[in-house]
Amino acid sequence: MNLLEKTLELSRLYGLKPDHSKGQNFLVEEEFFDAAISAAEIKSADTILEVGPGLGFLTEKLAKISQKVIAVELDKKLADFLGAKLITQKINNVELISDDILKINDDFFSGLDYKIVANLPYNITSIFLRKFLTAKNKPQSLVLMLQKEVAERIVATVPQMSILALSVQFYAKAEIIGIVPAEAFWPQPKVNSTLIKIVLKPPTELPPVNHELFWRLVKIGYSAKRKMLKNNLGNGLHLNPAEIEKGLIEIGYNAKVRAQELSLEDWLNLFAKFSSFML
């Protein structure tokens, strides 16, 4: 019996139909579980945070090769099923938490050396990344199954940059591992997914800037995407656009440049030029 057949059988027996409102789609192709595990480079001493374990197929594999798995499942029915399954199979190195990962306090991860492996619901990707990229105790890495379009936005370069791309590239290095076709899920989503790996930078490699002020500047720059940067910055910093234009030219940028046309390095240059106006 393949994974799709197992999934359909379990769904029928236990009434575990995926909840569309929660963005649930069960992965039913084993090769992509294996690809995620390979990308995560899991060692026997590792602790793995698995988000959205679903029916537990990946959980079982992770438990066999790591010291501990912390599996966080929002859906109580799925969590109850998985808890019973772990007991039946005598898998005792999995801590199952029935909760919303976005509501778990940062203190829970304090002192924890961990990696994340997750098949994320598409509707929580941005807030999930923000939570863990800026956490007090960040993961070593994240291997995520994401909507293809979102993964491509994360690794984007100019002129297709976004706040999401800047956020990930500020705190980490990201690479696309491969495409996961829609037919690898049940039920099939309308779009393909992508397996992406995000490795957090050590603190010594983070840009030496005031993070709060830097992101305030970025948000001002992106406040009206279709407008030229000089207008957005002028409005947000309460400066004449002509002053902004002069500053842009002084550091080598086109006066008509837009936010999405700037790389992380460009934004750091802008911050060095204009941060004094934000104090």
CATH architecture of the largest domain: 3-Layer(aba) Sandwich
Helix count, DSSP H or I runs of 4 or more residues: 11
Cα-to-Cα separation, first versus last residue: 63 Å
Helix percent band: 25-40%
Q: Under the CATH scheme, which class of the largest domain?
A: Alpha Beta
Radius of gyration: 21 Å
Enter the CATH topology name of the largest domain.
Rossmann fold
The biggest beta sheet is recorded as: 7 strands, mixed
Strands in their spatial order, largest beta sheet: 4-3-2-5-6-9-7
Unreliable spans: none
Q: Let me know the number of strands.
A: 9
Overall body shape? elongated
Counted up, domains total: 2
What key phrases describe this protein's structure?
9 strands, rRNA_Ade_Mease_Trfase_CS, single chain, elongated, Rossmann fold, Helicase, Ruva Protein, domain 3, EC 2.1.1.182, 7-stranded mixed beta sheet, alpha/beta, 279 residues, 18% strand
Task: Give structural notes.
One of its GO terms (molecular function) is 16S rRNA (adenine(1518)-N(6)/adenine(1519)-N(6))-dimethyltransferase activity. It comes from Candidatus Falkowbacteria bacterium CG1_02_41_21. It is found in: Cytoplasm. It is an enzyme of class 2 (transferase). InterPro entries: KsgA/Erm (IPR001737), rRNA_Ade_diMease-like_C (IPR023165), rRNA_Ade_Mease_Trfase_CS (IPR020596), rRNA_Ade_methylase_Trfase_N (IPR020598), rRNA_adenine_dimethylase (IPR011530), SAM-dependent_MTases_sf (IPR029063). It is a single chain. With 279 residues, this protein is of the alpha/beta class. It folds into two domains: 203 residues, Rossmann fold (3-Layer(aba) Sandwich); 68 residues, Helicase, Ruva Protein, domain 3 (Orthogonal Bundle), CATH 1.10.8. 40% of the residues lie in helices and 18% in strands. The protein has eleven helices and nine strands. The chain has a seven-stranded mixed β-sheet with strand order 4-3-2-5-6-9-7, with helices on both faces. A two-stranded antiparallel sheet has the order 1-8. Helix 3 links the parallel strand 2 and strand 3. The longest helix is centred in the N-terminal third of the chain and has 13 residues. The radius of gyration is 21 Å and the shape is elongated. It starts with a helix and ends in a 5-residue tail after the last helix. The model has no long low-confidence stretch (mean pLDDT 95).
